[in-house]
Predict the 3D structure of the following.
Amino acid sequence: MTQEEQGPNLFQLSCGDTQITYSTSSFAGPPHFSYSGPKGEDSFSGEEIQSLGSALGTEHTVMLEAVPDLHTVTVVLPDIRLSSGEEQSFHALGILTTNETTIAGPPAGAAQTYEVITLDGVAKLVEF
């Protein structure tokens, strides 16, 4: 008898000094996202995490800083299928976006700048 495959519920990602952990649910219930890297350390849960399906995969975004410029980090995760207890190594995109702001309003030129990193990841299907 084969186990039914499903999507992973725990993602651990890293690149240099950047560490990201994302779980689609937690013991408390809502999803959890933790970031440690050049923009500091922070944890997010529930509605603080924006998730959007796209042609690239599923994009998960959190706001790291709001002052003086808006900094967000987005992790693009591929679709992965696993059986319970399995894990899968993969590569993913991490995008640190800076929305340039000034007191006088948006500056001339591009309103966003991007820093793209390739993250090494492990996806797991963990039973709670």
